[in-house]
Design brief:
Helix content: 10-25%
Structural class: alpha/beta
Shape: elongated
Distance between the termini: 89 Å
Radius of gyration: 34 Å
Number of strands: 35
C-alpha cells in the first residue's frame, strides 16, 4: 500500500518488467524476487490476498507456532479479521511486527498516534496480542491463584489515542506493563464507561487446592506508568483496577472524569504514587458552564475501595468534588495534597460575575460545603487502621466516619480541619446508644493555618461521642498564614489533653474550664499540684469531681497559691462512674399539653 501511494500510475507496470534486470545485479539479494512477487500480488490480486489471509488464520488453528514471533504474527492476523463490536474505525489495523517478542505498540496494529482517528480496535488488538504471550508459557509459569504470568510483557503506547469504547484486560493475567502515552475518550464514548479496566469485580479465584482463594485477587503485579487518561468530560472514569494484588499506578495523570479518575476496587497491596487528578483544570474553574456542571458533580480524584494500599505523592486539584475516598482498612496516605477547592471557585464567581450567576454560584458553594471533602475515610465501609502522614489539605477537610485506630500526623491544614463523624455516610446513630467511643485515635504534630477564615476549631465532632480509649489528640500548632489579614484569628486547637496554671491570692477555690480546648464533653482523668506562696502555710486541698469540662481544686483555708492541673480524655475510661443523665422534667405548654 505504501508503494502504491508513492508511485505514479505508470510506474508499477514499469517496475514489474524491470525485475530481470534487478536480479541480474550480483549485489541484489534473492529476497528482491520475493518483494517483486508481493508487489504484483498486492497490485493485481486483492481477492487472492483476502482469501490467503483467511486461510492463514484457519491454518494457524491446526499448526502450533514454533516460536514466540510466529505466534504473535498469527495472532495479529486473526485480530485483523475480527472486528470490535460497535466500533467503526477509519484507521484500519495493519499487521506490522512489534519491535520485540514482549514489547507491543498500538501503531503496529494500525492505531493513529496523533489522536485524530478512532484507534479502539487497534488498541484492543494490541492488548490481546500482549495477553497472548501467556499462551506460549508453560503451566509452571503461573502466579498466585492460577494467574497467567506474562513475563513482563509491555504495551508501549507512544502516542495519543482516541477511543470510543472501553479497553479491557480481563482477570487472571499478571506481570505486565502499560506505559507512556495518552488515552482519550471520543464524544461517542459510553458515559458510564471507564477508559481502561484491569480485572473484574466479579471474579472468583481458587487456590492450589481448588478451594476458593480468601485473598480474592484475580490479577497480580499490574503496572500502569506514565499514562495520561483524558475522559474528556464524557467517560465516567479513567482507570479501574479490580481485584488485583500488587497493582502499581505511577506517574499518571487523570483528567475530565465524571465519577473518578482512578479506582482500586477489591484486591490489596496496591501502590499509587506520583499521580495527578482533576475533573477540571483550575483555569476552567471560573467558566459559567463549569460552575453549572459542578452543581451535579460527584467526581472523586482517587477512589480506594480496597485494603492494605499505599498512596504517596498524590495531588488532586481544582476543581474536583472530592479529592480521595478510602473505604477499607489498613491504608496508608503519605504526601497527599488535595486542593480540589470547589467552594473558593464558586465564591470567586459570585464576587466577580454578573448578578445572574450569583445564585448559581452560591448554590454550588453551599452544596460543595456539604458534600465536598479533601480526604474522606470510611464513608461507605468501616475503615480502621487508616494512617495519614505528611499530607496537605488545602482549603478542604479531612472527614473520617466512625474513626477507629486512626493516625494523622505531621500534616498541614490550610483553612481546613479534621472532622470526626460518629456514623458512616447516610447512617444514623442508634437512639439511646449514649454515643460512639473514640478509640485508638492519634492526631498530633499537625499544623493548622488560617488564611481567609479564622477562629475555627482544628478538630470537630459530628454526632455523639462519649469517651474512648488510648486516644491522643494533642501537640499541634496553629497560625495565620497571610499577614494581609491582621484581624484574622488562628484556628482553635482542640485536643484530648490539656493543662493550665492559675495563681490566686487568699483563695480557697481554683476553677478551670477547658471547654475551649477539650474535644469531648467530659474529663476522664486529672492530676494537679498546689504550691503555696508562703513556706509556713500548710493547708489541706482536694480536687473535686469534674463537671463536664470544668475541674475544681479547693482548700480548707484561704491561701495564696499556684495550682497546675492536667486533664485527659479518651484514655481508657473515667476515673469515676459517669454521671447519670438528668431526669426528664415536664412542664405545661400554653395550651395545657405537657412537653418533655
Amino acid at each position: 500500500a505504501l508503494v502504491r501511494r508513492r508511485l505514479r500510475p505508470s510506474q508499477p507496470t514499469l517496475l514489474m518488467f524491470m525485475w530481470p534486470r534487478l536480479l541480474s545485479d550480483e549485489a541484489a539479494p534473492s529476497a528482491l524476487f520475493n518483494l517483486w512477487l508481493v508487489f504484483c500480488y498486492t497490485l493485481f490480486l486483492p481477492s487472492v490476498a483476502s482469501h490467503t489471509s483467511a486461510s492463514a488464520v484457519a491454518l494457524a488453528a491446526h499448526r502450533p507456532p514454533t516460536t514466540l514471533i510466529a505466534a504473535q504474527r498469527l495472532h495479529a492476523t486473526a485480530l485483523a479479521v475480527a472486528p470490535v463490536p460497535g466500533v467503526r474505525s477509519s484507521h484500519a489495523p495493519t499487521l506490522l511486527q512489534p519491535r520485540s517478542g514482549r514489547n507491543f505498540r498500538p501503531v503496529d496494529f494500525g492505531a493513529d498516534p496523533t489522536g485524530r482517528l478512532d484507534s479502539t480496535r487497534a488498541l484492543q488488538a494490541a492488548l490481546n496480542a500482549l495477553l497472548s504471550v501467556g499462551s506460549l508459557k508453560t503451566a509452571a509459569s503461573k502466579l498466585a491463584s492460577n494467574i497467567t504470568d506474562l513475563g513482563g510483557a509491555t504495551l508501549e503506547l507512544e502516542g495519543e489515542f482516541l477511543i470510543s469504547q472501553p479497553l479491557l484486560v480481563p482477570a487472571f493475567f499478571g506481570n505486565f506493563y502499560i506505559m507512556r502515552g495518552t488515552l482519550r475518550a471520543s464524544s461517542s464514548f459510553p458515559r458510564n464507561g471507564v477508559l481502561l479496566t484491569v480485572g473484574s469485580v466479579d471474579c472468583h479465584p481458587f487456590d492450589a487446592r481448588g478451594l476458593p482463594d480468601g485473598q480474592k485477587s484475580c490479577n497480580e503485579f499490574v503496572n500502569v506508568r506514565e499514562v495520561y487518561f483524558d475522559a474528556a468530560h464524557v467517560a465516567a472514569g479513567g482507570l479501574l483496577v479490580a481485584c488485583t494484588m500488587g497493582a502499581t499506578v505511577a506517574d499518571a495523570f487523570f483528567y475530565g472524569f465524571r465519577r473518578f479518575g482512578l479506582r482500586l476496587a477489591g484486591g490489596h497491596e496496591g501502590l499509587i504514587t506520583q499521580v495527578w487528578a482533576a475533573e477540571y483544570f483550575w483555569s476552567e474553574a471560573l467558566l459559567p458552564s463549569v460552575i453549572v456542571a459542578r452543581l451535579n458533580s460527584t467526581s472523586v480524584g482517587v477512589v480506594v475501595d480496597s485494603i492494605d494500599n499505599v498512596l504517596s505523592d498524590v495531588i488532586v486539584f481544582a476543581v474536583t468534588q472530592t479529592g480521595v475516598t478510602v473505604d477499607g482498612c489498613c491504608n496508608t496516605l503519605s504526601g497527599v495534597h488535595v486542593w480540589n477547592n470547589v467552594r473558593a471557585a464558586a465564591s470567586a464567581v459570585a464576587r466577580s460575575r454578573p448578578t445572574a450567576l450569583s445564585d448559581t454560584a452560591a448554590s454550588c458553594a453551599a452544596r460543595a460545603q456539604a458534600l465536598a471533602g479533601g480526604i474522606v475515610v470510611g464513608g461507605s465501609v468501616f475503615s480502621p487502621q487508616t494512617r495519614l502522614r505528611s499530607c496537605y489539605l488545602d482549603f478542604n477537610h479531612l472527614i473520617v466516619h466512625a474513626p477507629s485506630s486512626l493516625t494523622v500526623e505531621s500534616s498541614f491544614f490550610l483553612n481546613a480541619h479534621v472532622e470526626l463523624r460518629a456514623a458512616a455516610e447516610g447512617a444514623e446513630q442508634a437512639e439511646g446508644d449514649g454515643g460512639a467511643s473514640l478509640d485508638n485515635v492519634i492526631i498530633r504534630d499537625n499544623l493548622f493555618a488560617a488564611k481567609s477564615t479564622g477562629g475555627y476549631a482544628s478538630v470537630k465532632l459530628s454526632g455523639s461521642f462519649v469517651g474512648g480509649r488510648r486516644t491522643i489528640i494533642d501537640d499541634s500548632a496553629s497560625s495565620v498564614q497571610d499577614a494581609a489579614w491582621p484581624a484574622l484569628q488562628p484556628p482553635r486547637l482542640k485536643a484530648t489533653r490539656a493543662s493550665r496554671t492559675l495563681h490566686l491570692v487568699g483563695a480557697r477555690r481554683w476553677a478551670f474550664d477547658f471547654a475551649d480546648e477539650l474535644l469531648l464533653p467530659e474529663i476522664d482523668r486529672l492530676s494537679y499540684t498546689l504550691v503555696t506562696d508562703d513556706e509556713s502555710s500548710f493547708v489541706r486541698h482536694v480536687a473535686r469531681r469534674p463537671i463536664g469540662t470544668t475541674a475544681i481544686v479547693e482548700t480548707d483555708a484561704n491561701v495564696s497559691a499556684t495550682v497546675t492541673i492536667s486533664v485527659v480524655q479518651a484514655d481508657g475510661g473515667s476515673m469515676w462512674p459517669r454521671r447519670a443523665p438528668p431526669a426528664q422534667q415536664h412542664r405545661p405548654e400554653r395550651d395545657g399539653r405537657a412537653r418533655t
